[in-house]
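Feature request disguised as a bug: please show the residue count (118) next to Transcription initiation protein in the output. Example input:
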Amino acid sequence: MEEYLILMRLDLLTKEAQPSPEQMQVYMKQYQDWVGGIAVQNKFRGGTGLSKEGKVVKSGGIVIDGPFVEIKESLAGFIVISAENLETALEIAKKCPILKGEGNSVEVREISAVHDRN
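Example output, currently without the count:
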């Protein structure tokens, strides 16, 4: 069983794209149900939301605003799941409720170990 990162992207910056508090409750319930369904299958490994603010460090120690200064799409959060293969991870990702929002997307990447976990 491999581990996959599901990155959730949506517009966190445009005021008109932000849900009302009532909509946010509905969206969070859908999200929690989706994650709960993954956890019931013992495939949920972790995850969290991310703040809107961030900086990018480039080579040479250059720090810039971003990484989303020029685009509306923001990285809202991520989860790590276990799946048999990329196709299975994609099937799980396709059920992410964030995809109900126009222009939103999720990205699925297999985690490859760079560091020894011991």
